[in-house]
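Minutes, methods subgroup
Present: GH (chair), OT, SY

1. OT presented the first of two proteins processed in the latest run. Sequence and structure tokens recorded below as shown on screen.
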Amino acid sequence: MEILAFGVQADEKPLIEQAFQGHHEVRCLDVFLNEDTAPIAVGYEVVCTSVNCDLGNHVLQTLAAGGTRMVAQRSTGFNNIDLKVAERLAMTVARVSSYSPYSVAEFAWTLAMAVNRRIVRASTRTRDFDFRLDGLMGRDLHGRTAGVLGTGKIGEAFARIAHGFGMNLLGWDVAENPTCMQLGMRYVAKERLLAESDLVSLHVPLMPETSRLIDADALKAMKDDAILINSSRGGLIDTAALVTELREGRFTGVGLDVYESEAGLFFLDKSLQAVDDDTLARLVTFPNVLVTSHQAYYTEDAVGQIVETTLRNVLDYKAGRRSENVLVPRS
């Protein structure tokens, strides 16, 4: 069987081809699955997708009509897939329920330290042989408070690093994590966490209940000199409201690896085109904001685990097995 993989990055391709070798043939495309590219999948029983692929009603209908019976998503998130439509079409859907939490947690800290210590500005200056320190002053994080919204595996890894810095820990989640509590984390209401934290990091999934979790009111509740980090999903933050607060001169730094309207932008080269997203265009102009292109997960370790799990999902599908990764089972 030959599998069609959409949205494959150059560094990712050899890992996918190596993992599937001896099992199934795989054709890797750098284009993302959407209404325009869905017809390419005609004749492929299994398609492999990424989080920025569009698997809405129209795309799934096109895939089903072309003979696709399984979608193997190479990510933990699946908010881009209409599961009800997939179930109605008797299409199996599987995801990667977990991979290295350290990849995302460590990158979240990379963003936090970069905006706190003005690393991008300093690097740009020294390339021009400007070695002044004006405007580069950061803050010690030791003794300050880190607020972790979402204390699952990634949030726990983030909290461990914060504990290593000697920070006080506040947490918010639907369930308390005993390991985080052993680190000294106190679970509090979201409003209190936002009001008391010097650093706020988001590690919750994007669901209807968490959409725009950080809205205008939440942003106003935060300290004026707080640091806000999002390496989870862009839709957790009301970006327009964030821009409004940034224009008021608030926040020491904001580090975003995700953006709520990133589909059609992230993972693509738009450097020679005019980007018509006014919110993003304004966001990247702020000197205290660092935006990266959804790369927190992008380590050899994490991507390797993602690919291996994706292969296992395909093998399970062919064998009629079901695992914790299955979102819509084989009918």
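2. SY then presented the second protein from the same run.
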Amino acid sequence: MANIVTSVCCVVLAAVVVVFAQRRSQQGARIQYERMGSDVTMQCGSLDSEASATWKVNGTDVKARQAEDGPRLILMEVNLNSNGLYSCFENPNGERRDQIVLRVGTPPKEPTVTCRSNTYPKGFYCSWHLQDPTYIPTDFEVHVKHNQKSLEVQKDAVHKNRCHVKFPELFSTFKYRVNVTAVNALGRASNAITFDDFFIVKPDPPEKVVATPIPNNVRRLEVTWNSPSTWPDVENFPLKYFLRYRPLIRDQWQHVELSDSTSHTITDAYAGKEYIIQVAAKDTEIGTWSEWSVAVHATPWMEEPKQVISTTEAEVIVETTPSPAPPSAKPRLGISVGGCSALLWSTPLLLASILLSLM
């Protein structure tokens, strides 16, 4: 066992040493970004065109399609497999003269941008993403304007491609304009959206949805929920709710729209059937419906069956079953004479003998 542990430790240590050595060797290397599918030329330091050099990638010979032109290495139609640390050595003494980290990627396309206010009337957030990967580091520049004024943009602490903006005023007649630009070493692309504040209002789903059976009501379920905790001012900006429910045995939903209540009693449930229930929320005046809440399951109250035993059944249960008569037994007649019992047999001869003895 000790030998196995020692071997594993040695393998892990060796891997760590290799990674550390690679990172350290790349520290002095320059990064060269190139477009996927293009032919790439790498120059070995400051060597003049008359010098010759030998190239290696990640410490091994370069196997990709290539051409050497003095101190230059030309790679044909590079792809992601072309990435790596390229080192060049001046001939004939083999002195290393340069190191290049090749990163192959693509320029960004227009990012997709969406904005939403789930904390109305405090502010809104915008998020963005690229439809296609670039394979190289890409940054985003975000600019928000309202009534020709630039607004402060705060980066989200958790989501990389998200920012937060405060509403400068409520019920504004001026539109908001959000412009997001994707930038990397191979190019840049922008996309802008324009909207009114009421257009992007969309609460988060209701929370803590609970469905409870009502005693002695086999067709009712009491459903309660809380307003989304992210909605800052329910009193001044009330929400209305949309409840949907269905038994698991069916695919069709039933819907109920409620004003500002956070509870509802389902009165038409199928007795004994399990139900799935969800709730959505929306500002009473503006915006759109939230996503559905987490689904909850519940079954209406079911009465426990009572055990009823009839008198006849009880008698049958307590009755002692008589033992069957022996198969050889014959009918007998018992007569009591002077306190003693005489047995009369049915045969004529025995009966005559008994009568004579009594005379």
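Chair's summary of item 2: The radius of gyration is 45 Å.
Next meeting: continue with the remaining queue.
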